[in-house]
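Instructor's aside before we start: the two examples that follow are unrelated to each other. I chose them only because their records fit on one page, so don't look for a connection. First example below.
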Amino acid sequence: MPKTKRDSLTPWHRTRVRERSRGQCEAIIDVERPMTLPDGREGFVVTTDLVPLRCTRRATEIHHALPRSRGGTILDKFRRGIEHLLHLCKTHHDLAHSGRATGTTLMIVGRVLTDPLTREPVYTGPDETLRALYPDPAEET
């Protein structure tokens, strides 16, 4: 019998993620927008600018933006927030797991470990929201 992935999300997590997303994919994608800029000589030059917009597809899957391998499931045990979870369409969920999503809004950089003394999660990384929710006691001195 094949080994299946154990789901660490509770109905509490699922409900809150779906409420936040209102059923729309939460991926932020860059869309090219034409721009006309003065070129300093004859008038104007047409170029493109990248504008971040939210995907308009229907969300069907809940994704650990902080991967399970770096402590995403540790945060599932604590009901402080759902900041490490995204409601995505299948296309963006597949992209998130393709290895090409680093540096996008689909993946959170950093790691969560459990403090051996307090048994509380501790986040280390650049995400300010997770650092505020799960601070490292060593950095508070």
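Example two begins here.
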Amino acid sequence: MGALDISTDGICNNNCRFCQSRGIVNLSFQRIREILEASLVSNDEAIISGSMIREDFLSILSLARSLGYKKIQVRSNGRMFSSRLFCAEVIKAGATRFIVSIHGANEAQHDYLTRSSGSFRQSVIGVQNLKAIRALVGVETMVVRENVRDLEMVAKLVAKLGADSHEFKLYRQQSSLSGIEADPVIASHFLGLAFRIAGSKCVITGGQGGNPNGYP
């Protein structure tokens, strides 16, 4: 069986300089239900990306669980997980794994990239809170010009947080965001240093965002 990757909306409490989710259609709860139901034939895992600040977020997780999805992964910037109560509510609703975005080695770098003051602190606390209740937590880092030389430090931070995996996503240039991408040669060198830290937990992928057009 496979995994359904669904982006529920383009709403976000960050404003990342490299955002690839702008333009994603905000799906209604009914449309999400239709997608989840139609995909059960070939998928037993739902990977849900989108805003945790939408009022029906917990209902979406509960719906996926009630339909029979055995694994429910939540991908987000993790800021809402700075609330321990919210962590418990999300797990109770059905989430079984989490991917949290951390793009900088420190507060100044991360908050610059997200253009959201306090986002680094909340995301880091979010990972800590999830790990404190023994949840499976991965971290993803978008590799761009501004952080490429600090990937080793990012990897050390993520390892210290106890993340179960660390995905480095190479940003792919979009015409409207020219100049943000990292030089491939430089990226290769510093990803090598990061790999020495992350080891078998490290994954390197392209940086495409969610696919809002691939649903049944």
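The radius of gyration is 17 Å.
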